[in-house]
Amino acid sequence: NAGVTQTPKFQVLKTGQSMTLQCAQDMNHNSMYWYRQDPGMGLRLIYYSASEGTTDKGEVPNGYNVSRLNKREFSLRLESAAPSQTSVYFCASSPRDEQYFGPGTRLTVT
Amino acid sequence: AQKITQTQPGMFVQEKEAVTLDCTYDTSDPSYGLFWYKQPSSGEMIFLIYQGSYDQQNATEGRYSLNFQKARKSANLVISASQLGDSAMYFCAMREAATGGYNKLIFGAGTRLAVHP
Questions:
Q1: Would an 8 Å CB–CB cutoff place B59 in contact with chain A?
Q2: For B57-110, how does the pLDDT look when each residue is reduced to its tens digit (9 = 90+)?
Q3: Which tens digit of pLDDT belongs to each residue from B20-67?
Q4: How far is the alpha carbon of B43 from chain A, nearest alpha carbon, in Å?
Q5: Is the CB of A55 inside 8 Å of chain B's CB atoms?
Q6: Which of A24, A35, A75, A92 could covalently link to A43 via disulfide, CB atoms 3.0 to 4.6 Å apart?
Q7: Distances (CA, A) of B36 to A84, B60, B117
Q8: Is the pLDDT of residue A36 over 90?
């Protein structure tokens, strides 16, 4: 039982490049989330998915797209990376109340 | 608008003593939940404790307890018998009223706790 897994752990992109962050959970949770954490701040919600086939915007969705591929997987895509997207990205899943987080992806955009 | 406030950017405590980390919140929803997460230097987010707005008793989980004062809109985390491994960032978070079978968390800015031997 791996919980929530994220790939990659680290990534460096040049401005304008695209990439997809992968997230998978094996806890059979319906809800999944993507957050970003910037230095000195708490996590901010980018997108969430209540169930397979549904997604909705969070607090800071601009510059991102998501796909809920199936119940297990929820990916985050940066179509044209910008330096302002340098951050640590966390994926989470939830059965109802508490959310369980993956280990995070540290992304640097130069 | 909902908001979480953690007024202590940093705290320190002697090993084996108790420490309280402050959290206040603001919401107009009657149904909400409050959480505390720990983030050690390795970076992962670890769920510690949860308190529902309708729960009559304060939540406890081992050495962690949540001092829930609804009228004051505060949800302070109390760590008893601090250990060196408790040194980490601690985040308070609030869940919006659950609709559609999911919930969204809003996080505070965090408090960095240092436990001294």
A1: no
A2: 999 999 999 999 999 999 999 999 999 999 999 999 998 765 555 567 889 999
A3: 999 999 988 888 899 999 999 998 999 999 999 999 899 999 999 999
A4: 7
A5: no
A6: A35
A7: 28, 12, 24
A8: yes
Nearest to A104 among B43, B106, B109 (CB): B43
Note the pLDDT tens digit of each residue in A52-71. Answer: 889 998 889 999 999 998 99
Beta strands A10-13; A105-109: pairing state: parallel
- B100 in A contact zone (CB under 8 Å): yes
Q: Which residue of A has its CA nearest to B1?
A: A59
The answer to whether B108 contacts chain A (CB < 8 Å) is yes
CA atoms of B92 and B54, how far apart (whole Å) = 18
Q: Which amino acid is at B19?
A: V
**E strand segments, A8-109:** 10-13, 19-25, 31-37, 43-49, 56-57, 64-68, 74-78, 87-94, 100-101, 105-109
- Using a CB-CB cut-off of 8 Å, the residues of chain A touching B47 are 98-101
Residue A67 and residue A7 in contact, taking contact as beta carbons nearer than 8 Å: no
CB-CB under 8 Å, B109 with A40: yes
Contact between residue A100 and residue B47 where contact means Cβ atoms under 8 Å apart: yes
CB pairs under 8 A between A and B: 68
CA-based radius of gyration for chain A: 13
Write down the mean pLDDT value for chain A. Answer: 93
Please give, rounded to a whole number of angstroms, the shortest distance from the CA of A52 to a CA of chain B.
12
Report helix, strand or coil for A63: coil
